[in-house]
Amino acid sequence: MNFKPFYPPVRTLMGPGPSDVHPRVLSAMARPTIGHLDPAFVSMMDEVKMMLQQAMLTSNPLTMPVSAPGSAGMETCFANLIEPGDKVVVCQNGVFGGRMKENVERMGGVPILISDDWGRAVDPDKVEAALRAHPGVKALAFVHAETSTGACSDVNTLTRLARHYDCLSIVDAVTSLGGIELRVDDWQIDAVYSGSQKCLSCPPGLSPVSFSERAVAAIKSRRSRIPSWFLDLTLVMGYWGSGAKRTYHHTAPVNTLYGLHEALVMLHEEGLEQAWRRHRHYHRALRAGLEAMGLRFVVPETERLPQLNAIHIPEGIDDVTVRGLLLQDYQLEIGAGLGVMAGKVWRIGLMGQACNRRNVLLCLAALEDVLSRVQARIERGGAIPAALVALGQAG
Ligand SMILES: *Cc1c(COP(=O)(O)O)cnc(C)c1O
Prior knowledge:
By secondary structure, this protein is α/β, with parallel strands linked by helices. Helix content is 41%, strand content 14%.
């Protein structure tokens, strides 16, 4: 074998993540690697922590990126907060709620599953009924932005229920952070985890997490030892803790953290609320174009995420052929359906840097061309004009 360097093709990433990474982030990651206990690195980490607190709208001291992808952030929450025998109300309205349930079980907890239709928000009435029926629940766990379906749940209403029934809240904000309103302190979320590669537009591999004082107290008063060494926050705190003398826990992914730092600087420059507005604005334009083509959304309008647009695949059209042509002819990636939605829906991401005017128009033009070539019954010629009208309206 004659092995050669790998040069990836240049794609436009409009799937469920990773999203397009800005050249500024890529070039930050190419800067020299230094020691992870180097004073220069430690002060950069302090900035990462401060910028994450700002992006999550929290003053929680225990806010930091876990050195692994979003799934590890999820596991960090459950490994630290859930002990054998703990009852946890878990809401499932897509793929990721199912993974939360799996996490509860693996920690020895007892999940109480609330199921909602895929493509709908979590129903707070069902959650309240479950909390009333099961006294002594330790935590309520749910997904804010369900990336498998494009549905957005009402965090504030759900965390209010958690407090009313005196249990902790664990919130998956992997796809929401940086894309839609997320207020960790105002909404009194106890444990939240996110990911670097969705609306923050970093490469994958880091999972920002944040824990409230209530959550920290629950960790400190555990009856049993945290079952994971790597994700044990009481150990990690010694490394990330503010003012604390840094001690070696694991070697931080130095260059990936440069990337997250740069992405957070860019979010700071744009402004958090402006980033939320931008996601809404381009979503409206994409929606206008898709609907003009006659494509139908999976999620009812009031429960839709702007950053993840799930649409039904038209009758008789082959999923793999269409996505293959988009990739081959337009270098454009859109997402396939997950789980029960495989082969039935497409998921078009407008996340972070990928959420812009060029991508909305590119995606609509490319889809219209490819769908026409495979003889899908769509309306032609109306998508771009409809999107342009929406783009002309103030966000
Ligand atoms: C992507 C995603 C995850 C998992 O993140 P990874 O970085 O792939 O491990 C978890 N929850 C939601 C809602 C996601 O979209």
